[in-house]
Amino acid sequence: MTKGTCGLCRHFVVRPADLERDVAGLGILSSAYGSVRADTGLCRVSEMFCRPDHGCAGFEAWLPQK
Asked: In a structure prediction context, what are the per-residue pLDDT tens digits for the chain, which is 66 residues long?
């Protein structure tokens, strides 16, 4: 991943537990833990699923908690 991509953005949700919490009904329909999803995640800005190497104008760097 390069700088400015979704995988490095604070708005990118990729953890299965977080996806199931943020996407209403996802746990009922299937599971965010499935292999079909691979490494796609949810962008909280565009409210769309995208790959971690995608990028957009809403990028904000993710800073880990210390």
From this structure: 556 899 999 999 999 889 888 888 777 666 677 777 788 999 999 999 999 999 888 899 987 665
Q: 6 — phi, psi (to 5°)?
A: -55, -35
Buried b (16+ CB within 10 A) or exposed e, 6-22: bbbbebbbeebeebbee
Distance CA 66, CA 63 (A): 9
Q: Where are the domains of the chain?
A: 6-50
